[in-house]
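Human: I would love a firmer grasp of how sequence relates to backbone shape in proteins. Could you go through the record with me and say what the backbone is doing? Here is the record:
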Amino acid sequence: MCFCNNRGGVGKTFTLFQIACAVAVANPDKKVLVFDFSIYSDLTALFLGGTTASGAFAASTGLVLCRENTTAETRVEGLLRRLSEGKKKSIGLGFFRAPDVAIDLLSFTVQPFAYNRSIPANLLLVPSAGTESFVAKESEKNTPWSVFKPTTADALRCAIKTLPGDFISAFFDTDHLASSPLTELALATCDSCVVPCPTDTAEFQRLYQTPNATTFHGVESLFSDVMLPMTARGHLRARVTKMIFSKVPSIKNEPLVTAAGIRIPFTPNVITCRQIDSLASLAWEVCDKNPRYAALFAHGSTSQEIFTAETFSAFKLMPDLARSISAQRGVPICTMTTETYTTASGISGSITGTVLKALVSEIEKLASS
């Protein structure tokens, strides 16, 4: 499962962090594997101790630890190089690169629990280290993270299939740019795609359209400029299974079903409910009128009722203290306690049992869906 969007700041990485940890906690006898495919490597920072930095332009606590305990050969960039090598096999008068099923993914992982006791012990991470991972040397061209190759996705999928049987899930964080080769690699590898998205109409519509992606690189829309062309080329594997409205304000810690049938693990205000129903209706209208878009969604060719109920959910706007502790200390909500936490930036406090219980319940429901 990969988490994707057009841009950063929508809660993609933070949502993945919470859900992956919740899945690991819910399945203590299984293992969860997480890949950090973002050039910012914020997910690695979260897992390995938090996003707090010692000063301006300094790397975060988690990235410093990653750089001290991994090498270019044992992080994502090493894995991508290995996957892109493949094995040349002849076919007629030509050659193609076949997936190398001998790749051992576990040799590119770290166990975050060894460095951050707040992370479940049964979760493993294929980390990246920001610029140290993704800035190519002058002598390097067409690095595995700068050019998408379908054969690399084939090789990665084969490697995942050869994992031991106790692995239950593989999660991929992707780059903040939808058109990034790293995002395309995840979309060509995974079975499903989760799209955390804002409740703002203009931002939501940018998943479908952009001003001019040909002229202004970096503004490509996820659906129209990336997933549809990948489909046309036969490279897209992932289908959108969930669109999660992120950072939604809550007025009660009680589950709610909106008028359109969206199940939410808490209660937003009436205006917000109407807004997300409206955006879900917009998404259905696009699918209903255009089979190409419907094919991008797991439930895009069903009825509006099924599409809406199965595709959409929401993630609460967390209280500032809980969010700060979670991000700056690398503490997922599912393992957070009511003890007093102090971040490196001096933020100190504790979450009440009632608030924490509600947050844990909501994330568990998201994870199970």
Observations:
- Residues 270-289 form the longest helix (20 residues).
- The chain is about 40% helix and 15% strand.
- Residues 124 and 350 are 28 Å apart (CA to CA).
- The mean pLDDT is 91.
